[in-house]
Amino acid sequence: MPRLQAKVEGKGNGVKTVIPNMVDIARALARPPTYPTKYFGCELGAQTQFDIKNERYIVNGSHDAAKLQDMLDGFIKKFVLCENCDNPETVIKVHNKNKNLTSSCKACGHHFQLDMRHRLSTYILRNPPEQNLNDAGKSLTKRKDRKGEKKGQAGGKDENNESINGNNGSGNGEDDDDDHEFETDVSEQAIKERMKELTMGVASLAVDNDSEKPENERLNLFFEFTKAKNAGPWDANLEKEIHAEAKRLEILNKAAMVLCELIFDAKMLAQIKANKRLLLRFTHGNNKAQKYLMGGIEKTIETHKDALLHKVALILKSFYDEDILEEEVILEWGKKASKKYVSKELSEQIHEKAEKFLTWLKEAEEESEDDEEVDIEYDSKAKISTIKEKQDEQSNGKSKESTPAKKDEDDEDDDDDDLDIDDI
Predict the structure, then answer these.
(1) Given a cut of 70, is residue 21 above it in pLDDT?
(2) Whole-angstrom Cα Rg for the chain
(3) Higher pLDDT, 378 or 295
(4) How high is the pLDDT of residue 294?
(5) Planar angle of CA 382, 386, 388, nearest 5 degrees
(6) Helix (H) or strand (E) holding 60
(7) How does pLDDT run across 214-252, given as a tens digit for each residue?
């Protein structure tokens, strides 16, 4: 594969980067040149332009070749290399029915699914790579061309009709398409079915475009989707559906903040446990989602200030007890008031009300750290028992009264002999 070249053209708002050798790069990767160009646009958040006839592939903005080359490596890793053997000899297959992409490796035979979360996957679904006609049968265009050739060779209407009739006898008639065109079912039921298919097709196109919309629009789509589902208590299937929608719209981190507006009101303290499982789908092990959840909590307190402001400490403790918010996230939030979600004044009030809980959390953390630092040291003196010490004191007292040293040893021996085991 040749090294990527980049040429910056234009000035001001009209500046753009042309990739002169994109066709050569794409040929080496066995991918259409539009794919890596569109990948650059997705990664940079820039618009792309394709002039296929003149082989001009453009990314809006000024970008140097080294930066684009690094991004190209990311494209190769995600959409070219085999996940099993890292071989680039792979073929992408589009499954329109399931709305997914798979890749098969010619080297090791491994089949795997591509990452459907990336925006380029949506583009590939709508613009599948050129495939061999034999992979899915001959195309309609090809069949019409062959039909035209036969008409030309036949040189007359009668001969053409005879040729067609012969093919119909074998079950592969070329004229079947023309016959079916005039035999379309026009019954009411058939029309309804066709309208339903058309509506579903348009809906799927709209869904595919959602991931390319600005983040605010995607958050609003998620809000409306969840609001429509919020008719009754959550069940596991509904929670999975909501999580999948957030994943499709690529807003997993901020989804928890949106959920606060939908599932909490003035009775927030009692609603935390009821919505624990749904929130954990977004916040478990995800510190970013927990930080956005803190923002959602602040917004909820702002909306129901009279009912919730004096309960801030209890609310945070409930989130902590249910493992929805982790200790480090709460302590990090408690370091300073912010005007990111609510006014600075209200944020300071919320932090003030949370001070008792934050202090308790810090003290608990310090105690746990102290417990971890305790080291046990063993001293040889600790092996001496209390009974032995008392005996030593008694013997020392006797030694002071007795003059000869040997008498002390004899007395100790006598004490040992007089020791009755029943007295112990």
Answers:
(1) yes
(2) 39
(3) 295
(4) 94
(5) 100
(6) strand 56-60
(7) 888 899 999 998 888 875 567 888 889 899 999 888 899
The answer to whether residue 381 sits within a structural domain is no
Whole-Å CA distances, 175 to 146, 156, 179, 184: 12, 16, 6, 15
Backbone angles phi and psi of 7, in degrees to 5: -130, 115
Output the CA–CA distances (angstroms, integers) from residue 403 to 390, 397, 407, 408, in the order listed.
21, 12, 8, 9
Which CATH number do you get for residue 307? 1.25.40.180
Quote the domain boundaries for residue 74: 7-131
d(CA 321, CA 358): 14
Element (H, E) at 97: none
What region, left, alpha or beta, does residue 239 occupy, with left being phi > 0 and alpha being psi -120 to 50 degrees?
alpha
Please tell me the predicted confidence (pLDDT) of residue 229: 80
Q: Using an 8 Å Cβ cutoff, are 400 and 413 in contact?
A: no
Q: Is the pTM of this model over 0.70?
A: no
Q: Are residues 217 and 366 in the same domain?
A: yes
Residue 180's pLDDT is what?
Answer: 37
Q: Is the pLDDT of residue 42 over 80?
A: yes
pLDDT (0 to 100) of residue 302: 93
**Does 281 reside within a domain?**
yes
Asked, for residue 119, whether it belongs to a domain, the answer is: yes
Burial of 268 (0-12, 13-18, 19+ CB in 10 A): buried
3-state secondary structure of 280: helix
Q: What is the pLDDT of residues 174-215, one digit of tens each?
A: 444 433 333 455 566 666 665 655 554 444 444 446 667 888
Query: Domain ends where: 353, 372, 391?
Result: 372
Residue 95 pairs with which residues in a beta bridge? 100
Give me the number of domains the chain comprises. 2
Residue 248, in any domain of the structure: yes
pLDDT tens, 89-107?
A: 899 888 888 888 888 898 8
Q: Is 68 exposed, middle or buried (0-12, 13-18, 19+ CB in 10 A)?
A: buried
In what helix (H) or strand (E) does residue 17 lie, and over which residues does it extend? strand 16-18
Beta pairing partners, 16: 9, 60
11 and 115 in a single domain? The answer is: yes
